[in-house]
Amino acid sequence: MQNNPDGELNAVKKRLVLNDDAGLLVAENHEVLEGKHKLTAIIEEEVRDIMAPKTSANDDLEMTVAVHECELTVDKVDDIVAIGTIIQVNVASSNQLIHGVPLGKDNMRVSVVRAIVDDALLPIPVKDEIVTVSDAIVVMDTSYVVKFIYSGEAATVPLLHNWSFVDLCKSIRSRFPDLIQGNFMLRYIIPPDSSSCFLESEVDMRMIFRNLVRYNSDFVEVFVTDLPSISESVVSNTVNEDSSTMLEENDYLGCYRAEAPKSYMTKGWESYIHSEGQKFEGGVVEFRDKLCKYAIEIGFSYEFVRNDKVRVIAQCSKKHSQGCNWLVKAYLCRVNGFFMIKRLVNVHTCHGVIRLQKSKMMGSKVVKSIVLDKIRANPNKKPIDIADEIKSDYGLDVPYRTVWYGTELAKTALHGDEAESYAQLLWFSESVMKSNPDSRIVVEFHRETHRFQRMFVTYGAWMKGFQFCRPILFIDATFITNKYKGQIIAASAKDANQVAYAIVDSENESNWRFFLEVLAEEFAKHPMRRVTFISDRHVGLVSAFPRVFPNNPHGFCFRHLMANLSDKFPAGSYLKDRIPYLFMCCAYSRTPEMYEFNMEILRSEGGDIVAQFLEDLPKENWCMAYFNGERFGEMTNNLAESFNNWVLPLKSLPILDINDGLE
Predict the structure, then answer these.
(1) How many CB atoms lie within 10 A of CB 517?
(2) Which range is least confidently modeled, 46-60, 366-380, 427-441, 528-542?
(3) Could you report the per-residue pLDDT of 40-70, keeping only the tens digit for each?
(4) Which residue of 108, 169, 303, 398 has the fewest CB atoms within a 10 Å radius of its CB?
């Protein structure tokens, strides 16, 4: 077969004889029998020439294998019944085998890759069951094997010669039911070639079969990767428009749409390691971090041969199993403290170098480096939310525990060790007293264990300012959510910020009494009017308050009382809304007569439930008509709730940072 002067390939008619393994062997000068169907092989394009190993009988010769794509026709050149591949060698004594059949000089081997007319008759059937073109393909279906790899799992199936791209996608989805339809991409590798290629259309499927013949291989690896959710309204323009089957089966086309895939924030990681002489000003820490991110984005793992502060040598983890040559050596430059790459072999000769959504290299230290700014902006950010953002922004699926530990490392890097912060409380107390002598800080430790127990803090400016504000304080406690837990007890003023606070291990009578006693001592130093206290009626506070402030009025938060009363009635009942309304009328009664009138209605409708609720609830603490002091129109403890919301970003920080934030 030679090119004509116009540069086009001639169409050469040949008689095709079917051998035992369903390959079609073409004799160059074979005569065509009269009255028999004949197949015509038309060469469309020459793919390329590949060099095969020298044969033992011809050590001085090189064997060239020519691979061509062809169309198989019957009777007429225009009647195409199948797509095939023609293979020819230039050495007569070659022992080259194609599907087990020797391929000699002046002979061509034609393999049917895909049938177009399934019932097209073969000219000379050798076996009774091999009569049509489709029969020939069926016999050869087990020639190739494809291995699907998805999320650390693998499945091996036969690669059928008549498979289209849609058929491949169907097989993948049948093997991996969790795979989201329309939300995946494919890449393939044919050993021994380690480079991966996109698998996006019917053209790519045809190239797989060509490359299998080219490399004389019967195995292909297909890597399946999840992608972010994208619109499924447009079919990809990479699909073969001449294939009606592809258009009818567009539900299996995966991510191959006109819409471009999302670009992840890891895109720049592929350039972190690029050449010898590259410098890292952050030293070995920066080098290790960027090396790990580079491996994640490229899609491989590595192991350290040497790893210390002055030298790092890393090689591909498949060095021993597949002989991969990838290697990097970096050393510390003692002159400027930079880390520098001295040698880099940046070529992988192993299989399966592809970016995965679940990478083993994605450890807690990498998580720490990418969440530092998130934790700095919001220290209370939950690990589960960070994991979702990493998956959305970086395209990486990281286990919860890895994200949690990386978040803890980021908090430690930003705010220091939480245990160490307790040891710095004495330094904090001394520093405050030097800069603000009128302040009061009390830190108590267990005498035997020397462990932190509780502390009280008030600044001189707070007390002096409160002397000129309305004498009403809102007191409440809120939880600390850092590693060692605890609670913050705070007293907040209406016309100022907080007046005092304490950090304790729990909200109990002992800690409430500690807080109130130190607060009373500070009130004695700063003469002021009688102070009214508003609280949510915690048991420990109710018990400790009369012992410390016996002459000060103590009002209960009306909203807390009304919510507690409402919870005593079943949901959906008439009384669940009616009784709280009647209780509100009693609380806002201005005169004893009005209170008695409203109370009679409340008791008659509420019955025993209301009577039991009011038994241990002195009216002097919640009714305006009997309140012994000035409430200044404040019936709720909302100001304390506002304080709790204000300190929310501080509650997860170490104790020293909490004190610094409250200051």
Answers:
(1) 15
(2) 46-60
(3) 443 333 322 322 333 333 333 344 445 566 6
(4) 303
Residue for token pair 């195409």: 80
One-letter amino acid at 309 equals K
Instruction: Give 605-619 pLDDT, tens digit per residue.
Output: 888 888 888 888 888
Could you give the C-alpha distances from 345 to 184, 272, 300, 339, 352, in angstroms and in order? 32, 15, 14, 17, 18
Residue 62: phi and psi, rounded to 5, are -110, 135
Question: Burial, 183: exposed, middle or buried (Cβ in 10 Å; 0-12, 13-18, 19+)?
Answer: middle
List helix spans (H) across 160-318: 165-175, 202-214, 244-248, 283-298
Structure tokens at 230: 């994208």
Q: Check if the beta carbon of residue 383 is closer than 8 Å to that of residue 403.
A: yes
Q: In what order do the strands lie in the sheet with 487-493?
A: 440-445, 452-458, 498-504, 487-493, 472-479, 532-535, 554-556
Contacts for 72 with CB less than 8 Å, ≥ 6 apart = 16, 39, 40, 41, 80, 81, 82, 83, 84, 110, 112, 133
CB of 639 closer than 8 Å to CB of 494: yes
Task: Annotate 437-469 with b (16+ C-beta within 10 A) or e (fewer).
Answer: eebbbbbeeeeeeeebbbbbbbbbebbeebeee
| pLDDT surpasses 50 at 38 | no
- Give me the residue label for tokens 């984005």: 297
pTM score: 0.55
Token look-up 């390939």 returns 9
Which residues is 498 bridged to in the sheet? 492
**What is d(CA 441, CA 426) in angstroms, rounded to the nearest whole number?**
10
In sequence order, the β-bridge partners of residue 397 are none
What distance in Å separates the CA atoms of residue 37 and residue 645, rounded to the nearest whole number?
A: 88
